[in-house]
Amino acid sequence: MLRLKAWLELWGARAFDFLSGDDKAEIYHRCVLAALDDPETERLLGKRDGVTRDAVLARMRTATYHRYATIRCPSLPFDEAVEKLDEARDRHERAARETQWNWQVVCSLIGLGALAVLIFGGLLALLVAVLAGAALMFTLFWRGSTAWFNLRQCLVAAGLGVDWLVQRFEVGMCAARWGEELQKECTGPTVADLVRHMLGDDPDSLFIPDDYEWGLRAPRAPGYIVENGARRQLERKLTHLEDGTIAVCGPRGAGKTTLLEQCVKKAGFGVIVQAPATYTPHDFLLSLSVQLCEKYMCDEGFDPPEFARLSPVRRLLRRVRLQAKRLGRWSSFAVPAAALLVLGLSAAVRSLYERYATSVSDFLRTHTDAIRDDVMAIWQGHAVVASVTITIGGIAWWQARHAAWLPRLLGRLWMRGIRRLGLLLAWASAATVLLDEQIRQQARHLHYTQPEALYQVVAYSGMLTFVWWLLRLARDSGVEFPLGRWHVSLEKIFRPLAAAAGTYLLLYLIDKPQTHTLLADSENPLRLAGIVAGVLLSKAGDWRPQQEEPELVTKCRNHLYRLQTTQQATHGLTTGGAAQLLSLGTNHTTSVSTVPPNYPELVEEFRQLLKCIAAERVGQGKTVVIAIDEVDRLGADTEALAFLREIKAILGVPLVHYLISVAEDVGAAFVRRGLPHRDVTDSSLDDIIHVQPSTLEESRATLAKRSQRLKEPHVMLAHALSGGILRDLLRYGLQLREIQDKTQSYELTHISRHLILEELAETFAGFRTLLSKQQWTHDTNNVLASFRTLCSYLRDPCPCVEADVLRALEQFAFYTHGSQSRPADAGDPPRAPADPELTDDARQLIDEASTYAYFSLTLLDIFSTEGLERRTQMAAEHGPDGDPERLADARQELGISPYSARPLIDTVRKAWSLPLGPTTGGRVPPSAVDCPRHKHSVIEPG
Q1: CA separation (Å) from 176 to 18, 635, 816?
Q2: Which of the residues 106, 186, 343, 515 could staple to 154 if both were Cys, CB 3.0 to 4.6 A apart?
């Protein structure tokens, strides 16, 4: 639909420019309107004061912008064509003024007369009329008559008029080409630049989202994966290692699971399993073995066994019910179709049988007698060579029972031979229509007796066939397009139309006498029977014998039964005499049941099975990957190491790559292996991949692939808030859309302020929960005063209290600022050293909250102030500390220690020229606004 709309707009613009001719002002106006209708430009209109469609159009109509837009698009060929058009118009008008007759009437009469002579007399009469007209004109010229002069001037005026029309067409083509180039190369970029200029500072900070950002709403949707350094490094290691165990470590949300899923998907054979939160090695290995067997059976095209809890009778009844339903649906189509085919082709088949039955039976009888004589000769020993040959053939056939080439060769011969034979039979049956003398005689008779009716039927039938073919193409295109809330499929629309068109075509051919005579040929049922038989034979070429279950699939099936079922067998024996009343009997019963495999046995069976699968897949040029995810959710590093110690027995299978997702502390233990002691990572892991948080460049590429509306300022904000963690990066990208929808503001200054304060409120709520578990006294109440005040403000962030929120946030952010470097002044917020009764844990939590507030305050100072682009360039002049990447580094450092994060934030604030202490007299100048909640004028930080 979009391509069709663009095509219609393109040709509509060309037609408009063609009709405009030499009016360059109209073409320029049309190009400006088209540039304003561009989606990327139109979405920016009306988002800031003074940037409207009429304002931009008025600017573009001025002489300055008109000259600037057109000077880059030379119109020399267009101007030359216009000059030639004016000259042709002048010549035509002079010739028309020199004659006393109306040249249009004279030329029209001459043309109508010539057309009448051609229609009623033919080409010969027209030639005679032309010669007569030439003789008449020569006579008038010889006599010097005035009529000759007027007639000649009329013809000259008509010729110059045709020349003017040709030149007008050339002007229209030049106008269309110039208008297309003007719109593409000049007015389009000029209007876009003008709109951005009228928007003022930071035009990219406007966040104008689409109605539906699927890439952000579905973080795990396929098709949005971006290549990064960790993935390339892992692929290189998998390429260079024949087998081994590779650990993938990194912070939570960095994309370890996505990395494992992509590697498993790309491998020739892969299984990914989640580590249990409360691990039990036996249960974990049992689940992994089941998934391994089921995955292999599905890849080989065999269904894994289903272990239902229903009784055998109910399973049998359900299977019978499903088969009966399937058979009933198949029969509802097969039986009527077979009945109609038998009824329609019975006469042709009977005639064919009567014609060839005797000769076929004689042929079969002759060859059967010959074969019987040969067999009897071999049986009686009269054909020694044939006996030896047959004996050798039997031995070779028995020896070839395990050879794969023989059934493959027979299957290929069957598939290709029977299909080609069927197609040959179908085409040969259809081609007999051209060789049938009776049909050819009927066609010649219709050609000589009813030619016009025959051609009309052929033309109309061809048109109907063409329409039916187009409808079938539209039906099979698979195109779907949105229509409001519904998705309309062309198949549902054109399927009944194609059926109706085909039915009407058939009825039309049957109803017309010309085609009915041809269809009524007595040989047509036999031809149709040959076509049906040929099609059925070609379809039979697709038949494949049921594949024999490979030995490894059988082993997987038996292993699944061994793991998931408990099998029990009972044998009974009863002995006794013939007379029951006088005999003594005995009864012996034996019961045997399987024992579930223990952990060592399960490990051995798993390794053997995986070794066989790996050998087969590697022999096919594929890789085998077993991925174990979510090991880092087991808890502390000691539990993760204990889990690795327990499952170490299944690692190290030849030709198998193990990928294990672990926490950063486990990866750190592997990196410092042997210093000063060894642990389980030394012997369990062969290599390690560190999935680092994304850089700003990688975050930009990730968000650009998922959303076209997130520009550079929005990417910087999401990257700084997330610290480069992929999961949080996508969450903040979606939260930008949520905040915009809630505030109905397109400015980053407003959106970022609400987003940062909202995140701060949620984080402080978590800190309050942790602080509530500490021991507090009446003397420590002053320490938490600013914290409680800030939390209460964050619960009600309306414009009435936003200035107080920023003031309290600043006081709490600089809570520990300079506590060891300068003495306390009057009015300073309370400090931790002044509270000796405060516990170390409480002081640690308050310091963490204060540093996070300091980081949030820094983001507010950077992103909620106008002129972000200009200030970003100024900060970049201060070196690496002014790089926006430093904001993400500070966010990552908050997860390590607040005491190391605060100095890093200080360096960032220095580079951005932000104060390193509380400001006096307010942080930002206020501006008067109306509070929508309390209905009165308040001040809001501008």
Answers
A1: 5, 70, 71
A2: 106
**Mean model confidence pLDDT for the chain:** 76
pLDDT (mean) for 491-497: 80
**Where is 786: in which H helix or E strand?**
helix 785-794
Q: Please name which of 161, 24, 181 lies closest in space to residue 85, comparing C-alpha atoms.
A: 161
| Helix (H/G/I), strand (E/B), else coil: 543 | coil
Contacts 24+ apart (CB under 8 A), 602-607: 602/282, 602/285, 602/286, 602/289, 602/563, 603/285, 603/649, 603/650, 605/289, 605/559, 605/562, 606/285, 606/288, 606/289, 606/292, 606/650, 607/650, 607/653
432-454 pLDDT tens trace: 777 777 777 777 777 777 777 77
CA angle 242, 248, 250 (to 5 degrees): 160
Tens digits of residue pLDDT in 135-176? 777 676 676 667 767 777 777 778 878 888 888 888 888 888
Q: Supply angle C-alpha 459, 463, 464, rounded to 5.
A: 120
In degrees, to the nearest 5, what angle opens at C-alpha 731 toward C-alphas 725 and 734? Answer: 140
For residue range 336-357, what is the model confidence (pLDDT) as tens digits?
Answer: 777 777 777 677 677 766 766 7
Q: What is the DSSP letter of 620?
A: T
Q: Are 286 and 562 in contact (CB under 8 A)?
A: no
The amino acid at residue 732 is Y
Average pLDDT over every residue of 908-918: 88
SS3 state of residue 275: coil
Q: CB pairs under 8 A, 24+ apart, for 39-42?
A: 40/192, 41/191, 41/192, 41/195
Task: Give pLDDT, residue 525.
Answer: 74
Single-letter amino acid, residue 788: R
pLDDT tens, position by position, 54-104? 898 888 888 888 888 888 787 778 778 888 888 888 887 877 777 777 777
Hey, is 255 helix, strand or coil? coil
Domain positions in the chain are: 2-104+144-200, 204-225+696-746, 229-307+599-690, 312-402, 437-520, 764-941
With cut-offs at 50, 70 and 90, classify the pLDDT of residue 907.
Answer: very high
Amino acid at residue number 786: S
Q: Which of 705, 699, 757 is nearest to 253 (CA)?
A: 699
Longest dimension (CA), the chain: 155
Strand, coil or helix: 830: coil
Candidates 596, 553, 605; CA nearest to 304 is 553
pTM attached to this predicted model: 0.68
Pairwise CA distance, residues 96 & 90, whole Å = 10
Q: Pull the structure tokens for residue 847.
A: 């310091």
Residues 6+ apart with CB under 8 A from 701: 226
Residues in the chain: 942
Enter the tokens of residue 115: 């057309």
Beta carbons within 10 angstroms of residue 726's beta carbon: 24
List beta partners, residue 688.
247
SS (H, E, C) 855-924: HHHHHHHHHCCCCHHHHHHHHHCCCHHHCCHHHHHHHHHHCCCHHHHHHHHHHHHHHCCCCCCCCCCCCC
Lowest-confidence region among 613-622, 832-841, 847-856: 832-841
pLDDT at residue 307 tops 50 = yes
pLDDT of amino acid 3: 66
Distance CA 452, CA 170 (A): 42
Confidence band of 725 (pLDDT split at 50, 70, 90):
confident
How far is 879 from 886, CA to CA, in rounded Å? Answer: 11
Q: How many Å from the N-terminal Cα to the C-terminal Cα in the chain?
A: 45
Q: Given this structure, which CATH class describes domain 229-307+599-690?
A: alpha beta
